[in-house]
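Z., the sequence and structure:
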Amino acid sequence: MKTNFKLFSLLFVLIAFASCSDDDGPNLVPVESKTASNIAAPQTGGQGQPVGGVFTKFNFATGQVTTSETEWDLAFRGTTVAVNGGVVTGTAEEPSRSGNGGASVQSGTFGSITDADGLTFTQDADGAFAIPSGSDNGWYNYNFMTNIVSAIPGKVFVIRTHDGKYAKVEFLSYYEDAPANPDPNTDASRFYTFNYVYNPNAGETTLTQ
């Protein structure tokens, strides 16, 4: 009788433990909040000449620039930003699109955009980038008087990555080392600094820690 009671007790503990483990749900990787600094985006031409140059590609999963033809999320050249989704726009030397990336332009503070659920995402298309250039839903303003490119406050770009995960981006600066008051005569341009939050969990849309 004692033996049967002990076996029953042990069985009850194992069942209870398994039930608790099931209730815990999947193991999720923590959401990452980081700043990418000095992402170089050189270009050739401009000032009335044809623009060219290889785009610099960035991967949110690694937080690094990449040379991969497929595993990239955003790509930069000058003030142009490409996403790895859709089709090529017809721009010279742009990377091919092999992923399912897209962008959703949101207005608000970086902290107020907390979830990608329900958002509509645009992909790069023939003749148009998902993240437009300039102030019309783009990421920057250009001051002709001062020759300064400045990130637009209150613009947050929610990104669907090439492999269907989610991130949000707040562009901060277009100048090397992100000076508070850039001088176009002394501060090198075409260097991106941006805050981003990246959720590495497939199927998860939360964009806050």
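The chain has one helix and 13 strands. Confidence is low (pLDDT under 50) at residues 1-23.

Let me know what you think.
H.
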